[in-house]
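Bug report

Summary: structure tokens for Sodium/proline symporter differ between web form and batch submission.
Environment: batch mode, default settings.
Steps: 1) Submit the sequence below via batch. 2) Compare with the web form result.

Sequence submitted:
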Amino acid sequence: MQTGTLISLALYFILMIGIGLYSWKKSTDSSEGYLLGGRNLHPAVAALSAGASDMSGWLLLGLPGALYATGLVEAWIGIGLFLGALANWIIVAPRLRHQTEELGNSLTIPQFLANRFPDKAIPLRVVSAIIVVVFFTVYTSAGLVGGGKLFVTSFAGLFGDTGMSDYMTGIWLTAGVVLAYTMVGGFLAVSLTDFVQGCIMVVALVMMPVVVLFDEGGPAAVQSTLTAIDPNFLSLFSGLGVIGFISAMAWGLGYFGQPHIIVRFMAVRDVKATKTARNIGMSWMFVSLIGALGVGIAGRAYMEMNNLPMDDPETIFIQLAHFLFHPLITGFLLAALLAAIMSTISSQLLVSSSSLTEDFYRLFLRKNASETEMVNVGRLCVLLVSLAAIYMARDPDSEVLSLVSNAWAGFGAAFGPLILFSLTWRKMTGSGALAGLITGAVVVILWIATGLNESTGIYEIIPGFIASCIATIGISLIGTPPDIDHEALVH
């Protein structure tokens, strides 16, 4: 069985590396090419790249696992994310595409903030770059945990005598392939592989719950099995309090501040194309989320009907792939999981690298560095961030959803209000931007460190986002807006 599965995975890895080599020849001659693909992404590529880099292993591991363990009430996280993504495409995408080009042709989010608020250019670039690198290292480690879990569940004993050997092999193999195409091909490689990975993910997420449903007697049989476990298992509202509802919906706030997602808006070929990309991206997201809900719900019914044990609910997608399909198809499904993991890791590594190269190396060390030198330094930074993430991911008991939720909240609270106000409010000041950035990040970290997220049940993005808004508005109102070309802000 493992042979057929390994063949499919090997073909997938070869395809990803092949895309990296293609991109290497197309767009790595300059920093703009390496970091933004020359601002010439097709709307479909931009849309699926944003979606695939957004959803990560959370879509096939964390969300189905939460539904498996708790029931349909966990779907509110998906609903909140869908609404947040839609608002992000409508409010942020066209404005960010326009303003980043008009204000100094910014290649990174910190660089855009510096151009938007020139009086606080250096502190904004440095602080935002630090936040990007720190939270993305945590975020990347979450993806690598997913890769480790995949290999522990699928290939136990193949790479060693212990589960830890399988886990670390999965982490190193996942990181190795991502590094191969990201370091070589840059942003274009990441975006094109994201497009392919997004297609694989949506096919897998549609196929698996359909097969489960009809393998076990159809929707009626699944429903009766689940209601026998818990009469409220299929209820959207059972056990859902006001705080739980707000916290779940608040996941959508995070979209405005996710650098690895909004950087796709900067790279789409023109402002008009953002509308086409939005329609494609939201359609993809809707189908994918429904599929992920189906995997968790139908998967719970399948395991109960067949009296199969489940030690880790987050591996339900992997378990169903092995139980229900031919090894070659299993390999395809596991490739979908790897696609979800790798698409996010590669995007995060590249954004972290761009911050280190443009906002540290060029800013402080080599202001006149050549384009070739900057591309090579970017590749080195990709490697360094990945090694740090591998070290953080070495604990096999880490939970993907927990790691993702912490990083998501950190970015959402630090950058969300900052991006929204900087794109839409002309009276915002550099001091207000810096205050909001720092306040949002600090409040999230303290909320987690003191255990308030668990004791109150309030997701840390809520107090962080609110505090960031208050700091941004309050400090801006007592200052003077920057003297910049306000025509560049109009769209």
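Above is the batch result. After comparison, the two runs are identical; trailing whitespace caused the diff. Residues 2-397 form a domain with the Sodium/glucose cotransporter fold (CATH 1.20.1730.10). The chain has 19 helices and no strands.
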